[in-house]
Write a sequence for this structure.
């Protein structure tokens, strides 16, 4: 990615995060390093996906054309995130006992959502460098049936964006969510891990669509008429030219990424419902959220006026408590990235081992 775009965009992102206290100091450092890895890649699409994910709390229909527009866009998104924060503060509690809502994101939370994509980007950069595409980036394009790593990177951000959108908008649902992992799909308090609602599910697919659309706009698809090798599904196989995507192919790409990312949100709910403990405050019935996505400690008893009360102040609503929220997010991102590459590899008859070739 060109430096004159990457540097001001990264600086604007980090400055806003600092001024709004949306990231801890360590989170800002790791976010800067993550942005640098994404900017290292010659294609601008991956850096843009990172920006859309971290700054969009709502649907994105186009990429801002300049750094100034990018800052204005980011400002509007942060306003929407504040609305979600206020709603969460009413419906949940923090592990410290005060009203809920999200504090600054830590470096662990940044890594949980972006480290898989960062590794795949470095692998793809290595492949481009090996075939000499770095020196001729303006003429480089992505052919149908090749570069599974591109699928994996986009799958990562489609899934984590879907999960973010689902959480941000699902909490606004008027009805109580239902526990996806329960046998009777029972109602649970808002904020319960594994709880799903119609609004949250639809919001997840909206988030995945924002990534799908951004990738479709910025990915350097090889045009119709390319002659690298024959395509089978998205390409122009009838003409014999092989690898041209064309508008029908790009449309199918958007649909596929949207559906796959939306399924990532559902997978995250399932993993959270099974492996992450949802802790309820016995006095208010509200879900307690761990700071920085960490596990919530269970209190055995509480005191009133210096007297011990045997009734526990916190109880587990659901989940085994094996993983915290960060581990669930990382596991989901990994599974959706690998799964996306496996599906594409099956359709394209390309082995997964090609990603390290």
């Amino acid at each position: 990615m060109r430096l004159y775009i990457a540097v001001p965009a990264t600086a604007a992102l980090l400055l806003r995060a600092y001024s709004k206290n949306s990231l801890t100091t360590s989170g800002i450092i790791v976010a800067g390093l993550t942005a640098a890895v994404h900017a290292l890649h010659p294609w601008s699409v991956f850096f843009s996906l990172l920006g859309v994910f971290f700054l969009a709390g709502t649907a994105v229909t186009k990429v801002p054309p300049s750094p100034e527009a990018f800052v204005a866009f980011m400002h509007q998104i942060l306003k929407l995130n504040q609305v979600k924060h206020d709603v969460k503060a009413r419906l949940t509690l923090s592990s410290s006992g005060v009203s809920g809502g999200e504090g600054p994101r830590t470096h662990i939370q940044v890594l949980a959502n972006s480290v898989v994509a960062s590794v795949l980007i470095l692998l793809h950069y290595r492949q481009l460098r090996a075939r000499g595409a770095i020196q001729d980036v303006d003429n480089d394009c992505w052919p149908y049936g090749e570069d599974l790593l591109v699928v994996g990177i986009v799958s990562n951000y489609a899934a984590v964006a879907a999960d973010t959108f689902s959480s941000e908008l699902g909490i606004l649902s008027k009805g109580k969510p239902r526990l996806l992992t329960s046998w009777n799909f029972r109602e649970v308090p808002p904020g319960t891990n594994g709880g799903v609602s119609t609004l949250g599910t639809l919001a997840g697919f909206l988030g995945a669509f924002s990534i799908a659309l951004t990738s479709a706009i910025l990915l350097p698809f090889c045009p119709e008429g390319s002659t690298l090798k024959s395509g089978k599904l998205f390409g122009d196989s009838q003409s014999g030219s092989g690898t041209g995507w064309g508008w029908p192919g790009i449309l199918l790409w958007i649909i596929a990424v949207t559906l796959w990312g939306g399924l990532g949100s559902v997978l995250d709910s399932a993993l959270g419902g099974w492996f992450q403990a949802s802790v309820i405050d016995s006095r208010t019935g509200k879900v307690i959220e761990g700071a920085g996505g960490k596990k919530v400690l269970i209190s055995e008893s509480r005191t009133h006026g210096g007297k011990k009360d045997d009734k526990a102040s916190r109880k587990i609503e659901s989940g085994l408590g094996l993983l915290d929220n960060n581990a669930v997010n990382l596991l989901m991102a990994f599974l959706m990235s690998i799964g996306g590459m496996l599906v594409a590899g099956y359709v394209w008859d390309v082995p997964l081992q090609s990603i390290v070739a």
Notes: Strands lie at 92-94, 178-179, 195-196, 278-281, 287-289, 302-304, 307-309, 314-318. The radius of gyration is 22 Å. Residues 152 and 339 are 8 Å apart (CA to CA).
